[in-house]
Amino acid sequence: MAERLRDAIAKARAARMVGLARSAGDVMVNQRAGHVGGAWNALKPFEPNPVQLRTSRVVAREGGAEAAPFDLMRTKILQQMRTNGWTRLAITSPTAGCGKSTIALNLAFSFARQHELYSLLIEADLRRPTLARLLQIEQSEPPGPQMSDVFTGAAEFADHARRIGDNFALGVNSRPAGRPSELLNASTTPQALKRIEAIYAPDLVIFDTAPVLVSDDTLALAEHVDCVLIIAAAEESTIKQIDLCERELAERTNVMGVVVNKFRFAAPEYGYGYGYDYEAEG
């Protein structure tokens, strides 16, 4: 199934011209000194519960065999982003239930094990936020952080961010936000992102975004990111859904590739029951 899906994606891609070249802009020189280092240190620390991570299928925190598929994706993504001077990566899916948030968390933890790399994970799926639940942040500190308040300009990132380790921070939502499409289309959202980058100078910003075919939320955000990675579910996502998702995104940003998730296979080399197949944009 995964091979047929991959081949179909490649054929659909070849049948049309895909190519919106978004200007990479100036590559940010990241210096972790002075006020930047102080800003990172001032973020509220959070230590995830290892049992909860395992329950949520987040396996890339410590590395090892189970983290290997995510480490492979990490390296490919990092190489492509560095080559193009990109710093903002959106992760999305055609529909709900493809596992995009779980993959976003695993990738973020994989990036965090690159100790010289400072990265942010920002939850931009404002209709069905899940990151706080997956990490059990809202249970430990009710009512919990709300990244949407940062997008409106009503709060600073530091008010709602949590730092895990020295070089990884995330902004999550403990509850759905009102009028998410209007918020992501508002001028306050790109202004908030620029302010976050100015203060924290991250090497990489990952956005966990809403499914593309469910609402226009991700299309609104797409013009503010450098590239996007599509997560599809084997035996659930159809070729038509993936192709439509890719077409919509390719009009607005660079489609980095498609990850086929949830295909079961015997993989003793990884020891993990779910498969991840990365199909890069060629």
UniProtKB/TrEMBL annotation:
Residues 89-264 form the CobQ/CobB/MinD/ParA nucleotide binding domain. Keywords: ATP-binding, Nucleotide-binding. This is Chromosome partitioning ATPase-like protein. Pfam families: CbiA. It comes from Thioclava atlantica.
